[in-house]
Amino acid sequence: MQHPREHVPQDWAPYPRLGDAVRAYLRDADAAMEALSGVLDPTAVLAFTCERVTSAKPWGDALWQEVAVTDGRRLVLWHGDDEADDERPGSLMFSSSIRTIPLSAIVDQGLRNRFRTEPDGSRTMHAVMLYLSTQTPERSMTELTEANETRTVQYVETYRFSKSVTDGGLAQMQRLLQFGRALSHMTGLTGAVSTGLGSGLGSGGSR
Q: What phi and psi values does residue 187 have, to the nearest 5 degrees?
């Protein structure tokens, strides 16, 4: 079975520009940037985070890659995934997908920062975890109740991002914190726009 080319990932955290970070860290950087460039203005990127996870499959190691970006109006997610080719046994396929979610769809967000207490009483950052819950129209369903009335059931999707001392290190934890705070700040502004609160907040949220 033909496997994808080898790529030795470098730490993406020192790179402030999305393209530089993606090319340093991801194996399929060209595919990621082609997809992201189609929906994003590179100069409008406020914050981003990257991830890659290797897992064992019956046919060998598979690589899952992720880039999460915000431009102040949207959460843009790119995913790359190694897959088996069901139509051609012994062959592999690569899946590149992109999803764009308006920040107004974020209904809940949690940013958790864990610190380890050292013997001298000081604390060092140990892990950062970001949770996002979104609610969009296509994830709703109208159903009939027992009283022959209709009701709309909203389904929530949750996205999780994490970095730790053993997964990315200090610099990537700090970048995830930056990403989570940027999302929280801009979600507040877009929420003010959607509810019509204040002209000052409205102009900031719409960029």
A: -65, -40
Distance of CA 188 to the CA centre of its chain: 18
Q: Quick check: 67 and 48 in contact, CB under 8 A?
A: yes
For 134, list phi and psi in degrees, rounded to 5. Answer: -120, 150
Closest to 130 (Cα-Cα) out of 88, 176, 85, 166:
176
Q: pLDDT tens track of the chain, all 207 residues?
A: 555 667 899 999 999 999 999 999 999 999 999 999 999 998 999 999 999 999 988 878 899 999 999 999 999 999 999 998 877 777 789 999 999 999 999 999 999 999 999 999 999 999 999 999 998 765 555 555 566 666 666 678 999 999 999 999 999 999 999 999 999 999 877 655 444 433 232 222 332
DSSP conformation class of 107: E
